[in-house]
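Repro:
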Amino acid sequence: MTDEYYMLQALREAQKAYEEEEVPVGAVIVLEGKIISRGHNQVEKLTDATAHAEIIALTSAFNFLGSKYLPGASIYITVEPCLMCAGALYWSKISRVVYGADDEKNGYRKYISPPASIDPLKTAAWPFHPRTELVKGVSQEECGRLMKDFFRSKR
């Protein structure tokens, strides 16, 4: 399976959030080619500011594996993770973070951005585990469109 395939699965989760009038962010965690957990934003439903797609997917994966770490796993997120979720991903020791659309207003890069000339893996500005690989822009247009459609419908 490809990154695009797994991002499509995350987009399906985001669509669930959209239908529940939540900010449409979805996430799936993959280990050894299998989806082991899914999540979508449930902040309004649970009245919990921490009920982001990534947190829900991480908790489900930890429970599924009976472990607090996810080495060898990848998370696919429709939108750039916020600072809180980047921290949770750091502590999970997940191997890959793959996201679709950038989030200039609420993404982690708003608060943590290393100088362009410095390798982010060698600076304190890198928000993920030192061994975590970051892949940006997978299905970026589709992920961004869902967010834009959602916020346009709220205006």
